[in-house]
Amino acid sequence: MNSLEILAFFVVAAVVLLTLVIGRGRSWRIAAMAMTVGAASAALYAPGKSRPPGKADGIPEQVASRRIDLADNVDQYVSSDTCRGCHPGEYASWHKTYHRTMTQLATPQTVLAPFDGVKLEAKDRRYELEQRGDEFWIRMADPDWEAMLQRQGVDLRQVASPPIVERRVFMTTGSHHMQGYWIKSRFGNMMRQVPWFYRIKEKRWLPREDLFVQPPEDKRHFSTWNDTCLHCHTVGGKPLMDLESGTGIPQSEVAELGIACEACHGPAERHIAKHQNPLTRYQFHSRREPDSSIVNPARLDPKRASEVCGTCHGFHAVDKPRDYAVHGSPFRPGGDLQVPFETVRYEPDLPDKARDIFWNDGTCRTGGDEYNGLSASACYQRGGISCLSCHSMHHSDPNDQLKAEMNSNEACLQCHDSYRDTIEAHTHHPATSSGSLCFNCHMPYSSYALLTAMRSHTIDSPDAGVSIRTERPNACNLCHLDKTFDWTADHLTKWYGAPPVEMDGDQKSIAASLLWLYRGNAVQRAVVANSFGWADAQSASGTNWFAPHLAALLDDPYSAVRFIGERSLRTLPEYETLEYDYIGSPYDRARAAEVVREVWQSGNGAVGRDDLSTILLKSPGSILQSIVDRLHSARDDTPVKVAE
Amino acid sequence: MTEISDPQTSPDSSESNDLQIYVRRHIRWGWWLLTSFLSLGIVLEGLHAFKIGMYLDVSNETRRLMWTLAHAHGTLFGLLHIAFAATLAATVTQTNRSHAIASKCLTAASLLLPLGFLLGGAYTYSGDPGYGIVFVPVGGVLLLIAAGLTAVSVSRHNL
User: Fold this and answer.
1) Percentages (nearest 5) of helix, strand, coil residues in chain A
2) How far A39 CA sits from the closest chain B CA (Å)?
3) A143 membership: H or E segment, kind and range
4) CA-to-CA distance for A89 and B60, rounded, in angstroms?
5) Distance, in angstroms, between B32 CA and closest chain A CA?
6) In whole angstroms, what is the distance from residue A144 CA to residue A163 CA?
7) What is the pLDDT of residue A221?
8) CB A87 within 8 A of CB B127
9) CB contact under 8 A, B119 and A9
10) Cα–Cα distance between A172 and A248 in angstroms, integer?
C-alpha cells in the first residue's frame, strides 16, 4: 500500500464519516457502524477455502478419449488458465509468445499448413492430406510398420508396397519458423511425427530429412513425441513409458501443452491455495516481499535463473534415464539443474550426437543449446550475467524474446558501461556501424539451427588462431567475407595485442569464408553460407563476387546447406527469380548452378575489385577454377548431424 | 394508494418539513451523483477513444473493471436516490426512524460503493484491486439495509 493510496483511502473514509455525522439520531449510526465493521471483517476474514486445482487444459473430449490424456492434478500443476485470473498482464504477454504455441492440438486455428487435397511424395512414399471439418487426416505408409522394419535392419526403399493407413493429426509442434504434425501410433498414446514439416515463411511443405543438417545417406528418422518433445514442449510432461514389461509403450500425461507459466515458475497449486484468501493476498501486497509459494526466475540468482531456461535450452546428460523415461524431468524451477542432469561439455570422444553440437574447440554451435554456450562464458561464470539479463518472457519481442534495447549495445553496456563513450576506440569501427555492435564480434552468427545461423551464446572475443586450429568460424571473417585469416590475425594483433598466428599459404592468401565454403564441413558451410546473405556482411564485403561461390552450394550434398546457399543467393537482385529447387534432382541443381555462373560472367562479375586472387577470381567474370577444384576436393565430408 | 400530503396544509408541519427535507436531499444527491458519475463515464469513454494504456492494457484489466463498476454504480445510485425520494413522497406523510436510517445508509452506500471501486482501480496489485475495495462490501451491506428498510416501510403503507 503506497502513501498516496493510504491518503486516498482515508479521504474516502472521512467523507463517508462526515456524511454520517450530519444526520440526527444515534441508533442508525450504531447500526451502520456495526454493519460496517461486520462487513469489513467478513470481507477480510472470510475463510480461505482452497479450490482444487483445475483440470490442466480444456482438452477436447474426442482427443482425450484417444488417450492423449491431460491428467488432473499432475504434480500439483494448475495450468495457465488459473494464473490468468490474477496475472492478466503476464498471461497476455506470455500468450503472444511462440513458447505458448510450441505444442498445440491440431485445429483449424492452429494448423498453419494447407491440408485439403495436398499430396506429398518423398523417398518413394506418398502422403495424401485431407481436412474433414475441423479434423486433419493423412493417408500414408503405416509408420509403426515402417519403424518396426527399420529396427530390424530392412532398407525401407526396398519395400515397394507398404500397408497404407489413415491417421488423424492430433497435435502440432512449432508455429514460428516451421510446424510439424503428430499422428497417433497404435502403441499406447505414442505420437509419431509426420515426416514432413511446413515451413511458414516459405509457405511450403518439406520433407523432414531436408530440413536438418544430417548426412544425405541417413535413414529415415521415425520421431516419437512422448520420449523427446514432451519433456520441453509441455508443462509437467511424464512419458510414463512401460519399462517394466520391456515394451516401452507410453501412456504419457502432461499438465499443459506448450511452454506455459508453470514451466518457468514451477507447479502453482500451493501458490493458488495460499492466495485464495484475500487477507493473505493483501498482507502480501503490503509487505512487498518475494512469495515463497512460487518461483519467480527474475528473483533467482543469475545461475539458478539461467538454469530455468537452460533445462530446455541446453544439452544435458540425464542422471537417471529410466526414471526420466517414466516420470519425466525431475528438475523444477529454482532447483539445481546439475542434480538431475549434467550439462554436456565438449570432449573429443563424446558420442557423435553429443559431439556434433560443438565446434571442435569446445564451443557450442547449436541453436537451442544456448545454455551450454552461455554457461561456458566468463560473463556467466564471473560476471553474473543470466539469460534474463537480455531476455524476458513477458516484456519482450516474441521473435527472440529480447527485452527492450537488448538488440543494441545496451545489452552489454549494462555491465561494461565504461565502453559507452569509448566504443569507437575499442572496436576500431565507426560508432554507428555494425562493427561497433558488441554482439557482432562477441556473439557472432556462428551457431546453427532451423536452417539459419544464430548468435553464439559463448560470449568471447574473435580469435583467428582458434579458427585456424579448429573448425570454428570467427566473427571478423564471418562479416569481412573477402578477407583472409592473415588479415584478421594482423588486425587483432595490431588492435588488441593478440599473439601472432601460424598459418599456411591458403590461409594467408584466400578469403577465410571461401576456405570454409569449399573445404569446410557441413556446419561450417551452412554458417558461412548464411553470412553471404547477411546484409551487414554484404555491406562490408561487396557482393559482386558472391554468385559463383554460392553457386557451388546449390549442389551441396547437404540439403540444409543448399537451402541456405539458395536463400543467400536470392538476396542478390540478379538471382531473385532463379529457377531452382533445393530438393530438386541433382541434374536440375547442377544446371541451376551453371546458370548462376553464366549470369555472373555475363555481368562482368567483380569488376572494380583489386583483391581478385583472394576471392578466387582470375579476372572479373572468371573464377580461379583450379584452386576452387583443389579446395573442393579437400572438402571435409565427415558425416555431421546437428541435434537441434 | 396513500395520497401525498401537501406540507403546507399538513396537520403536523414539522413532520412534513422533515419529509420535504428528505425528499429534497435525496433528489439533490441523485442529480449530483448522476452528474458526477456520468462525467466519469465520459472520462472513461475518452480513455477508450485515445487508447490510453493505463486503462486499456491487458495488464490494467483490473483497473478497467473497477472504474467501469464505479461509473455504473455511481450512476445507478443517482437514480436510486431519486427513486428513494419519489418513494418517500409517494408513500408517507411523515418520516420515522426507519426512514432516517434508510436515508443515511443509502447516502453512505452511494459514496462507499462507487468510490471504493474508483479507489480500488486507482491502485491495483496485478489481479487484485487496491485497498479501497474494502469500502465496497461495506457499502453493499449499507445499501442492503437501506433497501430492506424501505421495502418494509413501503409494505407497511400498504401500497
Assistant:
1) 40, 15, 45
2) 5
3) helix A143-151
4) 7
5) 15
6) 10
7) 85
8) yes
9) yes
10) 23
End-to-end CA distance of chain B: 6
Across the interface, whether the CB atoms of B141 and A4 are under 8 A apart is answered: no
Which chain A positions have a beta carbon within 8 Å of B126's beta carbon? 86-90
Using left for φ > 0, alpha for ψ between -120 and 50, and beta otherwise, residue A220 falls in beta
* CA angle, A181 then A182 then A184, to 5°: 155
pLDDT score recorded for residue A607: 85
- Tell me which of A95 and B17 has the higher pLDDT: A95
Does the beta-carbon distance from B137 to A43 stay under 8 Å?
yes
A9/B104 Cβ within 8 A: no
Dihedrals phi, psi of A426, to nearest 5 degrees: -75, -45
- Verify whether the Cβ–Cβ distance B131 to A1 is below 8 Å: yes
The rounded distance, in Å, linking the Cα atoms of A375 and A303 is 8
CA atoms within 13 A on the CB side of A572: 25
Residue A138 burial (CB count, 10 A):
21
Residue A398 near residue A96, CB atoms below 8 Å:
yes
DSSP A53: P
User: First-to-last CA distance in chain A?
Assistant: 48
| B57 within 8 A of B63, measured Cβ to Cβ | no
Separation CA A226–CA A221 (nearest Å) = 15
CA distance A563 to A283: 58
Q: Do strands A341-343 and A256-257 pair parallel, antiparallel, or not at all (unpaired)?
A: unpaired
Interface test with A, best of B55, B64, B138 (most A CBs within 10 A): B138
Question: What's the CA angle centered on B93, arms B92 and B96, to 5 degrees?
Answer: 70
Mutate one of B58, B63, B110, B124 to test the A interface: name it (highest A CB count within 10 A).
B58
Cell of A438: 558488441
- The CA distance from A279 to the nearest CA of chain B, in Å, is 11
How high is the mean pLDDT in each 10-residue block of chain A (644 residues)?
A: 68 69 51 45 36 33 38 70 92 96 96 96 92 96 93 86 94 97 94 96 96 91 92 94 94 94 95 91 86 93 97 96 95 95 95 94 96 97 96 95 97 96 96 96 98 97 97 98 98 97 97 98 98 98 97 97 98 96 96 96 87 95 96 96 90
Q: What is the pLDDT of residues B69-80, one digit of tens each?
A: 999 999 999 999
Instruction: Report d(CA B119, CA A168) in Å as an integer.
Output: 53
Give residue A126's pLDDT: 94
| Phi and psi, residue A242, nearest 5° | -80, 90
Question: In sequence order, what are the residues at sequence separation of 6 or more whose Cβ sits closer than 8 angstroms to the Cβ of residue A606?
Answer: A544, A545, A612, A615, A617, A620, A621
Residue A535 cell numbers, joined = 546484409
Nearest-Cα distance to chain A for B70, in Å, is 14
Q: Look over chain B and give the mean of its residue pLDDT values, rounded to a whole number.
A: 90
* A597: number of Cβ within 10 Å: 18
Residues of B near A (Cβ–Cβ under 8 Å) read 57-62, 97, 100-101, 103-105, 107-108, 111-112, 115-116, 119, 122-123, 125-128, 130-132, 134-135, 137-138, 140-142, 145
Distances (CA, A) of A428 to A411, A431, A498, B62: 20, 8, 15, 52
A349 contacts: CB under 8 Å, gap ≥ 6: none
Cβ proximity of A477 and A533 under 8 Å:
no
Q: Which 3 state secondary structure label does DSSP give A254?
A: coil
Residue linked to cell 536438418: A212
Distance CA A570, CA A389 (A): 36
Q: Which residues contact A478 (CB under 8 A, 6 or more apart)?
A: A444, A445, A446, A513, A527, A528, A531, A534, A537
Provide the Cα torsion B66, B67, B73, B79; round to 10°.
-170
Position of cell 507459466? A261
Q: How far apart are CA B11 and CA A635, in angstroms?
A: 117
